[in-house]
Amino acid sequence: MRTGIYVDSDNISSSGGSYMRYETLRRFYEASSTVMIARAYHAFDEVLAEEKPEYANWHAAHVSRIQGAGFRLFIKPVKRYTNDTGTSRKGNVDVELTVEVLTQADKLDRVVLVTGDGDFVALVHALQSKGIRVEVIAFKNVSSDLVQSADVFLNGYLVPDILAGEAQPRDRVIQIMSVDLNAQKAFYTHLTQAPATFSPDDPAWVRGEIKLTKSMIDSRNFRPGKILAWRGRNADEQAFEVLASQRV
After folding, report:
1. Which InterPro entries did the record assign (predicted)?
2. Which of 116, 173, 216, 233 could form a disulfide with 138 if both were Cys (CB 3.0 to 4.6 A apart)?
3. Main-chain phi, psi angles of 147, to 5 degrees
4. How many CB atoms lie within 10 A of CB 107?
5. Edge to edge, what strands does the sheet with 110-114 contain?
């Protein structure tokens, strides 16, 4: 399968993926296909970089991390507009991403859109009309329309080791699939490696169960669709942190 990966870098960075390892993302899809194209799109605010050295330093490191992972990077300068209500900034890369995907689509069997932006629903439908499989990966603040339109949606938190730095002090990330309140149990799944398919029967997906206490049930954090960071071996309430929610 010929795959193209397209990352809306600013959307991902502001929605849970600021520590995303681009190399892990690429290798995740290389495990099940040939990655023909790996592209990332990013807006750069030159004025802000002059005003805030920390932003300039972050940008330089961000660019280095993306390019070092084998992604070609498109950088769009942020434009500023002044009117009666003040100064506004515009640095949206949606058009550039969409045009490139559609231009390159004939070379691909699968397009992976790494974004949670609902503005890409029309692009998803256009690709599907060409017979191209569209998969979406994002972390949080994901458009429900985008999730429903994609052939496959995978929450990025579930990809092993995809987050670097202080955002990843966890043993595993799990998704609650179902809950038996009578038995006080929650049943979960998590990924141990890149799956060959996105079938729930793929051996990369591991199932387990958690014994729930009354406080865990009352917290409403252990409901179907909840994506949790599990720190430590104990299954008490303090060992879990809610990262996102996803319909299952």
Report:
1. LabA (IPR047140), NYN (IPR021139)
2. 116
3. -60, -45
4. 10
5. 72-77, 34-44, 2-8, 110-114, 133-138, 152-155
Give tens-digit pLDDT for 111-155.
Answer: 999 999 999 999 999 999 999 999 999 999 999 999 999 999 999
Q: Where are the alpha helices (DSSP H) in 14-141?
A: 22-30, 46-51, 53-68, 94-104, 121-129
Q: pLDDT tens-digit profile of 59-84? A: 898 899 999 999 999 999 887 666 66
Quote the DSSP letter at residue 25.
Answer: H
Residue 170, both tokens: 């966890």
Fold of 2-158: Rossmann fold (3.40.50)
CA separation, residue 80 to residues 32, 48, 88 (Å):
42, 11, 6
Token pair recorded at residue 100: 């490139």
Q: C-alpha distances in angstroms, 37 versus 26, 108, 109, 118, 186?
A: 10, 9, 12, 22, 39
Instruction: Write out the two tokens for 20.
Output: 């995303």
- Cβ atoms within 10 Å of 222's Cβ, excluding its own: 22
- Crossing angle of helices 53-68 and 22-30, in 10° steps, is 20
Q: Does pTM surpass 0.70?
A: yes
State which H helix or E strand residue 10 sits in.
helix 9-13
Domain ranges of the chain: 2-158, 169-245
